[in-house]
Design a protein that fits this description.
Pfam families: Polyketide_cyc2. With 179 residues, the chain is α+β, with helices and mostly antiparallel strands. The protein is 24% helix and 39% strand.
Length: 179
């Protein structure tokens, strides 16, 4: 099951554009960083950031529908997903816990994302918005470590691609005019 999850992450992420990099790997973890410029103002980008159901890829959700994902933007708030009952019982998953928030400028979450959730791992996802030209730059850093059954050097590029894909989704939706 674990290999299928890893391959699913890798295969679905191949379409993610570059602008992300694995900064560091070690025996105990890794650091990735992605950055994207978005032609929209800080308030609009931040509001969109808090509604992952609009920009997160359905393929990287537990329910198969990112519309089930929410972020409660206050310290202790949850980046959570409801899993509706289909062929069994309904459920939910916590992707991360909000640990720092400055509206319009920064959102930081603590949580082991995706396949890291089944390991004794911890991760910190930091999203920083800064003015750039006629829009915003969003820099995403993810630091993960702990006991990882898959070597960090092996899994870090897959996590980098998947998170980079989500950041590109944020950009795409933020720059798409409402009709």
């Amino acid at each position: 099951m674990r290999m299928i999850t890893l391959l699913g992450w890798a295969g679905a992420a191949m379409a993610a554009p570059a602008h992300s990099v694995v900064m560091v790997t070690s025996d105990v973890g890794f650091v990735i960083e992605s950055e994207v410029e978005i032609a929209a103002d800080a308030d609009a980008v931040y509001a969109l950031l808090l509604t992952p159901g609009r920009w997160w890829n359905d393929a990287h959700s537990y329910s198969g529908d990112s519309a089930n994902m929410t972020i409660d933007a206050h310290a202790g708030g949850c980046f959570c997903e409801t899993i509706p009952a289909k062929a069994g019982a309904a459920g939910s998953v916590e992707h991360g816990r909000v640990i720092y928030v400055v509206p319009g400028r920064q959102l930081r979450l603590s949580g082991a994302l995706g396949p890291l959730q089944t390991d004794a791992a911890i991760g910190t996802l930091d999203l920083v918005l800064t003015p750039a030209g006629k829009g915003m730059t969003v820099r995403m850093t993810y630091v993960a470590g702990g006991y990882l059954r898959t070597r960090p050097a092996q899994i870090a590029p897959m996590v980098d691609q998947v998170l980079g894909e989500q950041l590109q989704g944020l950009k795409r939706v933020a720059e798409t005019p409402l009709s």
